[in-house]
């Protein structure tokens, strides 16, 4: 990213975090092992069941959330924001102070996670491509839920995984990622693909293929809001997480989310920078290979950890990675917090200031141009470091709990504990590697 964004990007000088990396890694590994041991002794029966967990939300709240005016309000907000930022992208200047970059890389990518944790699947509610597809369907007199073709189930979430990889490639590898032209082109291609897909397959295309809707919906699985048969529920985040539909490509999605965040840390590390500078191969090619290796590597390690177990007669090894992929979601969220917290808070405020002046003319359309961003988090490095480490450890512990509950439901009794050991080893590897990168960047 360009200098104006890079100053606050990522974890902001993790080498100086005032915590011993050896102590943090040892503590995190111990937490995982102890968690698994306690679960093995005290958690012998599955506790989460999507068909029974949760209780209906208060009727007044359900009436609001399910009302037409509420849905229209969110769709209007999403469309107005889309048009406003679109005007800045088309008519604004190709400068780093153009708010398009902050909205694209900070609000859209990172901000979706806390919003989805608090409110549920936010992108589904505000998605401008869903709104445009709905408007087209109304004009044509057709049903936006149904397209002219049936979506192939075997594709699952693989198109979303490809879309997510395309985004992180643009952000982390493409050398002109903060020029307006490439960002405009990426967004135009995204809108075009989404509208064509919606016309062909209906709204199921967005549920399975929209990278941001899939990302937001996965993050919302760790919220307190869920649904069953259309009824709004309040339930524990882990029960909500267990209700994640098992579909092809789910491992691909979490591997891209986790692997790209890890590579974002790694590419700023001293070892990688020195390797790239000392190599005769172009930095662009090496970064491409590095990003791909991290995403594929995460997927392979996780797949191996889930497949190296004893099975009953009704399970196939190839089905296990997607069965357990939901357990990676809290890990992804933990790393997003650890890696992007100060980035979101600080650059997110700068973006709000810039949004008042979308054409870089000194305007103050939103009344936020004179706000002063707060760098309070960066001024408290000990607190920030503790939050980052706790986020990583908490994400992994919750991942172990989610995986354990799923294991004792689907694995035969003789393998319910021993069968989890390879997956526990994979999660320990993720923890050690993630915390190492957190401190090495």
UniProtKB/TrEMBL annotation:
The chain crosses the membrane at residues 23-43, 72-91, 103-123, 155-173, 185-206, 289-312, 324-345, 383-401, 421-439. Keywords: Membrane, Transmembrane, Transmembrane helix. The keyword Lyase does not apply. It comes from the Bacteria. This is Fenitrothion hydrolase. It comes from Nocardioides mangrovi.
